[in-house]
Amino acid sequence: xxNTAINKKEEIKNLHIPRWEEIPxxxxxxxxxxxxxxxxxxxxxxxxxxxxxxxxxxxxxxxxVKHGVINPPINKKYNKxxxxxxxxxxxxxxxxxMEEIKKLITxxxxxxxxxxxxxxxxxxxxxxxxxxxxxxxxxxxxxxxxEQYILRNVVQSFANKLYVQKIYLKN
Length: 171
What we know:
Blueprint (H helix, E strand, L loop, with lengths): L2 H11 L14 E2 H12 L16 H9 L10 E2 L1 H13 L5 H14 L2 H21 L11 H23 L3
């Protein structure tokens, strides 16, 4: 493996998704939201539209609002909850349909407040990516609830796809 590939692998293993406490406490305009998401996720998610330079656009976000995946902005500004939803959506849309994402988000929010559900998602995602890119596998844990087991599998599916794309397909 080349030094570039090793460096890229290390960079991906060190993915950090901003936790609830790290998301700005001030409401943001859509351009600011796009910039925040783009800066955090551009190395890890793929653009569906090869003609677009950006992996996240205002149009995409507006479509999620229009289709009821996230609540409309308040006075054209997006709050912490909107931003947390968008992080989850942009990651999961690499694997799942919008309907599936809505169901998965609902499942997470049925069992925990949004800040806890979001932080758990981020931590599990980072763990899955680190383990996948290190060649490790999850230790069996019989004490996981069904929701925790589903979350683990959801983030593992993203980690597996990311690994294949970045290491084998070199996308």
